[in-house]
Amino acid sequence: MCAENKKPGGASAPSGEGLGSLPPQGCGSVAPRTQQRAINSRNGSAPPPMHDCVSHASAATQPQLEKECKHKMNETVKTAAPFWEGGSIRLHHADCLDLLDALPGGSFDCVATDPPYCSLTKSAPSRKPSGLKYLSSDRRAGCAARLPGFDGEDRGSFSHMRFVKGVFHALRRACAEDATCFWMTDWRQLAMVVDVAEGAGWGHCGLVPWDKTPGARPIAGWFRNQCEHVLCFKRGAGCATRMDAYAHGLFRQAAPQAARRLHQVEKPVGLMEMLLGVLAPGSRVLDPFAGSGTTGVAARRLGLPCVLVESMREYCEIAAKRLEEGGE
């Protein structure tokens, strides 16, 4: 059995269904994009109906609702075998653009993600490992040596903009008409991300600051880098959110302590839980840059089906272990 189909500890996770009569593309992988588009066209893949899990919520018990949500998630991501699976949470070891191209349109109701910022990289000579950017104050705790770097942080400004553009176009195709997107960034990339997202057909509808408290990284002779930001977008005219939800417009909590951190730039579970808390019951969540699985932990707390995608095997293993052990 392929390693990607094993849960930590040796238990096996169920594999996804194959695509047509094509030979396997490798454990936990998806077909190349051009080949996948041809398969979807040949099979006539249709978007799953929106909020099937929600429509019967008033009559169904919670176990029945969870079963329906898991069935819908199985239909959504049957194009690839998961790296790890537990309940209605699935983790895939893949490039997010490859996996998104392999899915039918309308597969998700919400994107909640913390992508690479590339904020301190302007050109090739200035590139340096992510640990030197983000962990300078944490080295005494051994965080830089303990945690691997992460993909995509060393792109130049222009190549990063092109990458973000491709992701937003792919997300729009993969999301339902009334989907929302919560995209984390810092002040340097705010204008670029808004411009690119709107160019891809997403409507900018808000910003939620994350105040990291005075414990955030200081700057001599200047203002402390105390905030990061959640950019909010909607795919269509409306959003599939709970009208009885009144979420705060500011989140205040320190970043996870270095000694307990599972990713170099890990976000608090409470932040992701606050964002997902406005969604309608049964909303299908996607995190295409899953890292250590924080979005999955928050989605599980709220009973929402969630697909996590991570390109680095090291972080897939960390996220799978965290989710398998019920970690927070």
Can you give me a brief rundown of this structure?
The protein has 328 residues and is an alpha/beta fold. The protein has 11 helices and 9 strands.
How would you characterize this protein structure?
This protein has 328 residues and is α/β, with parallel strands linked by helices. The chain has one domain: Vaccinia Virus protein VP39 (Rossmann fold), CATH 3.40.50. Helices cover 31% and strands 16% of the residues. The protein is built from 11 helices and 9 strands. A 9-stranded mixed sheet has the order 1-2-9-8-3-4-6-5-7, with helices on both faces. The protein starts with 32 loop residues before the first helix and ends with a helix.
Q: What's the main sheet like?
A: 9 strands, mixed
Strand content: 15-25%
Based on CA atoms alone, the radius of gyration comes out at 19 Å
What is the helix fraction of residues, given as a range? 25-40%
Q: Tell me, briefly, the overall form.
A: globular
Biggest sheet strand line-up: 1-2-9-8-3-4-6-5-7
